[in-house]
UniProtKB/TrEMBL annotation:
It comes from Ilumatobacter fluminis. This is NADPH:quinone reductase-like Zn-dependent oxidoreductase. InterPro entries: ADH-like_N (IPR013154), ER (IPR020843), GroES-like_sf (IPR011032), NAD(P)-bd_dom_sf (IPR036291), YIM1/Zinc_Alcohol_DH_Fams (IPR050700). It comes from the Bacteria. Gene3D superfamilies: Medium-chain alcohol dehydrogenases, catalytic domain, NAD(P)-binding Rossmann-like Domain. One of its GO terms (molecular function) is oxidoreductase activity. Residues 10-320 form the Enoyl reductase (ER) domain. Pfam families: ADH_N, ADH_zinc_N_2.
Length: 335
């Protein structure tokens, strides 16, 4: 099968198109014909083995491979069609349209993907394209988990730091769905996009020092680990809650509920499950969430896809169309 592979850590140039052996499902597994895979920040960090949350560098290198990658095919998030099921599988049938995550098994940058039937896979939202569905789980699931931990409700004021990223943009949508008034923080060129997601107020962090803001917020959803947490906490009102979706190690310690920790601080680094993905699909099909896709690129342009993610030159997700009919599916996504 055709796949995007890499055999060393480095920049986008280490990625190439290769022919690799097609995986075969065991009795408790399913084979998925991948239609689309999100090129996400986690993919680019694993490609380079360099992580914005620096505390991850050592454990992830042990997982991925100390000197070179153990798994040559990247890819965490995908959408596709069940093409074969093992003898013991009862949850899925051939022809089911699904979306989900591979976890650290990786592999969604290839035409065929084999996963345990009990993996985090769910029916694809009926109203989404494969590209939109591939870009749903990372952003929407993390945002939903974080905002629920913060108990966002009607009338709350919510500040989303990094509102122009995929998780942040879904955070804006979900906070609005929960009845909150949302302020989005990001670079000026993302203002129209962030407002289109539902933010009523926008702050350009390059022109405005957040420390000078007069408003105080019930909830801060923070996707920017480089922003000093003390600056964020100073913006909380009475009984305010701070949630980091991309925490530093020190933030995780402060949220750990150990003695002397700060009970205002929480992290949103888990929450991916079949139940959560099924719930998100329902939210989409009921009209509460919309897809966030900047562009869909063919496999041959994977290096460009990773550059766009690395440099944040995007408004929404970058998605790879996987397989020989990718051009037709890219065309159907943009019409």
């Amino acid at each position: 099968m055709t796949a995007i592979t890499y055999d060393s850590y480095g920049g986008p140039e280490v990625l190439s198109i290769s022919e690799v052996e097609r995986p075969q499902p065991a009795d408790d597994q399913v084979s998925i014909r991948v239609q689309a895979a999100e090129a996400c920040k986690s993919d680019t960090e694993m490609r380079s083995c360099s992580f914005s949350a620096s505390w991850l560098s050592v454990p992830m290198r042990l997982v991925l491979g100390v000197r070179r990658p153990r798994r040559p095919v990247l890819g965490l998030y995908f959408a596709g069609v069940i093409e074969a099921v093992g003898a013991d599988v009862t949850d899925f049938e051939v022809g089911d349209e699904v979306y989900g995550t591979t976890g650290l098994r990786l592999g969604s940058y290839g035409e065929h993907l084999v996963l345990p039937a009990k993996a985090t896979i769910a029916p694809k939202p009926a109203t989404m394209t494969f590209a939109e569905a591939a870009a749903l789980p990372l952003g929407a699931c993390n945002a939903l988990n974080g905002l629920r931990r913060a108990q966002v409700g009607a009338g709350d004021t919510v500040l989303v730091n990094g509102a122009g990223g995929v998780i942040g943009a879904y955070g804006v949508q979900i906070a609005r769905m929960l009845g909150a008034e949302v302020t989005g923080v990001d670079a000026a060129h993302k203002e129209s996009f962030v407002r289109s997601m539902g933010a009523t107020t926008f702050v350009d962090y390059q022109a405005t020092d957040l420390a000078t803001l007069d408003d105080r917020y019930d909830v801060i959803f923070d996707m920017v680990p480089s922003t000093p947490i003390r600056r964020m906490l100073a913006l909380l009102g009475p009984d305010g809650r701070y949630v980091s979706g991309n925490p530093r190690f020190t933030t995780m310690l402060r949220a750990s509920r150990l003695p002397l920790t700060d009970d205002r601080i929480q992290t949103a680094t888990d929450g991916e499950s079949r139940a959560a993905f099924t719930e998100l699909a329902a939210m989409v099909d009921e009209g509460h969430l919309v897809g966030i896709v900047d562009r869909v690129l063919p496999m041959e342009q994977v290096a460009e896809a990773h550059r766009l993610v690395d440099t944040e030159q995007r408004l929404g997700a970058i998605v790879l169309a996987i397989g020989p009919d990718a051009e037709q599916r890219r065309a159907s996504t943009t019409t």
